[in-house]
Design goal:
alpha+beta, six-stranded antiparallel β-sheet, 2 helices
Length: 88
Amino acid sequence: MRLRHGRKRHSRCRSCLLPEAACGRKLIVRQILGDENFRIKMIEQGVFPGISLTLICGRKNHPCLISTGDNKIMMDSNTAEQIYVTAE
C-alpha cells in the first residue's frame, strides 16, 4: 500500500512516524517530539518512550487509534505525527 507521499506503509520500520506504521502492528515508542507541555500530556495518557503499543488504525492526515494495554487512545493526525516508533 502506498501513502500519498509515495512511500510504502512500513511493516517493519526502523524508525517512522506513528501514522506511517502498518495498522495492527505492535510498536515501541522511540521518541516524542513537541514542547515540554505536549510530552507531559502524552506521558499522562500513558504514551512515552519505551512503551509498547498497538496501532489499531490510522494513516497520515487522519486520526489514529492506539492501544496501550487496557487503554485505547484516539489522537488527531497532528499529535500522531509527533511520535516516532519502531516495530516490536
